[in-house]
Amino acid sequence: MMRSPSTKCRLASVVAGMMLACSAIAVQAQEARNVILFLGDAGGVPTLSAGGIMAHDRPQSLFIHSMPNMGLSDTSALNNWVTDSGAGMTAIMTGQKTNGSMISVLPSGADGAVTPVKTFLEYAEEKGLSTGIVTNMKIWDATPAACYAHVASRKNQDEIFKQMLAPRFGDGVDILIGKGRSDAIASFAKRQTTAEQAFAQASYMFGDDPAIVRGAKRAAVLRDSDFAPIPAVEATIAQLARNPKGYFLMVEWDMHTDNLANGLKHVVEMDDMIRRVSAVAGKDTLILFTADHSFGLRMGGGKRSTPLAEQYATEAAKPGATLANNPIISVEDGHTGEEVITTASGPGSEKVRGFFANTKLFDIMMAAVGWTKDK
């Protein structure tokens, strides 16, 4: 039977549509081999906006603004509308909201009892993936600790160090890079040992230079000063990627703007890291950026004809000027409770859409690698 040209065109269109649909399903079904979570501590939307304009003199100039998937995440804690990093990161890493200052535990009784909750990093360790943490804050602080420790108070430094080297699943975080070297020395001294000895007994190469990561299967780099972020992250990824099963990496960068210059500089530093990692990470890598909470920064003025940094500096130099009353960028020193941005690329990133709770990020990471949560 002969078909008319119009019929043939319709059939071709239907077939093409079916092929595109099948292709889309295949893309959506692809599982991530690796997950990289970038966490801007206090990196709320106002801070990101001001950081980008201050650095590049134009709006929406950060790399994260170009990432293909974006949503807005609620950051409230279980007991407070405004969270701290402990409860904020616990929600992201466990899929459960908890009380402020708690680290990957849930309150389970009026007597102060708590119950540990399994973290995404612990799932990764259990599955045999390599794991890493890079932070420009203290390695035992709330955000990194929520990945591997379970304590009722984020202030319990000694217990966090203890759990760092006594993991519940796998052999613990494989690459640790962060600050807090003097804290580690003091903490392990209470147990009649040194930080070097304690980490060596746990099979870590211990030092203060991130370059040692390239030659060590397991490394702990602790220091009390800043380090170059991109080389440290690249070295960490190069080492973790040797595992054929894949890896999970959490990178935290401090964006608190109680020190405005440092906070906005760190925005650009992390954005540059994400740009670089996105260029070199494989297509099998889910890359997420989010914040644990926002901060009290507001951009209140400025002319587009003059660089924003100059205008801010002029106002800051006036007699009586403070961080809180600068008409260009003002800062009230404290966390705030509005939603924060989440951007994403790679397998599973299409689920980053609309408004959602911070706990959904755990679900997104689990779904991306094809894992199911323990009952």
List keywords for this structure.
two-stranded antiparallel ribbon, 375 residues, alpha/beta, 14 strands, ten-stranded mixed β-sheet
Specify the biggest β-sheet.
10 strands, mixed
Radius of gyration, whole Å:
23 Å
Q: How many structural domains can be distinguished in the coordinates?
A: 1
Shape: globular
CATH homologous superfamily - what is it? Alkaline Phosphatase, subunit A
- What fold name stands as the CATH topology? Alkaline Phosphatase, subunit A
Round the mean pLDDT to the nearest integer and report it: 93
Q: Which CATH architecture?
A: 3-Layer(aba) Sandwich
Span of the ends, CA to CA? 59 Å
Strand order of the largest sheet: 7-8-6-5-9-1-10-13-2-14
Question: Given this structure, which CATH class is correct?
Answer: Alpha Beta
**Element-level helix/strand string:** HEHEHEEHEHHEHHEEHEHEEHEEEH
Strand-residue proportion? 15-25%
How many helices does DSSP assign?
12
Fraction of residues in H or I helices: 25-40%
> Structural class of the secondary structure composition?
alpha/beta
* Number of distinct beta strands: 14
Task: Give a description of the structure.
With 375 residues, the protein is α/β, with parallel strands linked by helices. The protein has a single domain (31-369), classed as 3-Layer(aba) Sandwich (Alkaline Phosphatase, subunit A). Helix content is 37%, strand content 22%. The chain contains 12 helices and 14 strands. The strands form 3 sheets. The protein has a 10-stranded mixed beta sheet, with helices on both faces. Helix 2 (45-56) crosses helix 10 and helix 9 runs parallel beside helix 10. The longest helix is centred in the N-terminal third of the chain and has 25 residues, at 5-29.
